[in-house]
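U., I forgot to send this yesterday:
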Amino acid sequence: MVPAQALAPQPQPPPARANTPLPFKPVFDGTASKLACFLNRAWSYSDHHGDEFHDRVIVSILSDNLEEEASEWFTQVHDEGAPELDNIDDFLRALQARFEGSAQAQEAEAEIKMMKQKGWPAKEIVKEFLRLAGRLSNWPEQILVHYFKECLDEEDLPTPHTSFKNKLILVMGNFARTGGRGH
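Result:
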């Protein structure tokens, strides 16, 4: 005779967990003010699931939540076959470098557009303008010249038809001759 316990149905093991990552919900559109939050959530997601999935899978999941400018950037990186796509940390650092820099450029752009001499010594206004213009390497020279002229007091405007660099040199020279007073 067979013991009753042997005839009883054996409990089934739990179903194998499908090797499917949990969804990642935060969205990033390239807006600099949203970057830190997105990166924090992305690194947290990577920390929780990094041992379960290859980095390329996690990069793919995160990239599904990129929109607008960030999505355009990802498409370009993907089309180039960038090695950052194979390593989550490299990918997030590249994302950070791309969009953190844009935040600095946006700040510089806003500062340049608001900049006015208003009695500042010319050397100081030139120095500050050049510092900000250095963050706007993609701006055409004509636009920089326009905003530089806009920020100067009228009597300090350089003559037309000279290069941007020459205009800065003329302004600096004028202020050096006048002892930095500008008048």
